[in-house]
Amino acid sequence: ELRKTAVAGVISVSTVDLEMYLAKYNAIISHELRIVKSYDLWN
User: Fold this and answer.
1) pTM of the predicted structure, to 2 decimals
2) What is the DSSP letter of 24?
């Protein structure tokens, strides 16, 4: 039982990490896109 709980804990932690990583990655991508769009507007 303890092992199951540990595995479930690890899975939930890695899921949270993955979501945070994806959120950070999405923020970086949208920021880059915004820079590219504004760059296109200036030229």
Assistant:
1) 0.50
2) H
